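Our preliminary data section would be incomplete without showing what the modeling component actually yields. Below, a chain of 75 amino acids is followed by its predicted structure, encoded as C-alpha cells that our downstream tools consume directly.
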Amino acid sequence: MARADKPNVLLDYLIDKGWAKDDQTLVKLINSSPPVLSRIRTDKRYPSARLILGIYDNTDLTIEQIRGLIKGEKP
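Predicted structure:
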C-alpha cells in the first residue's frame, strides 16, 4: 500500500473499544473473512466500502470516524 493510511489503527480501535475481542470475532462483526482481514493488517489490501459499511452497521461510529481511523487519526 503506497498510502499513508493505517488501517490497523481502525481494527485495533474496534478491539480496544470492545466491539470485538480479537481478530476472529472482528471478522464476524464486519461479515468478512480471515484472509481479507489478514491482508488489511499486512497493508496488502485497503478496507473496502463493504467492510466500512459493515463496521458502520455494527458500531456507533460514523463513516467519517471510520475513514479517520483508517488514516490513523484517533477520534
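The chain has five helices and no strands. The radius of gyration is 11 Å. Preliminary results of this kind motivate Aim 1 of the renewal.
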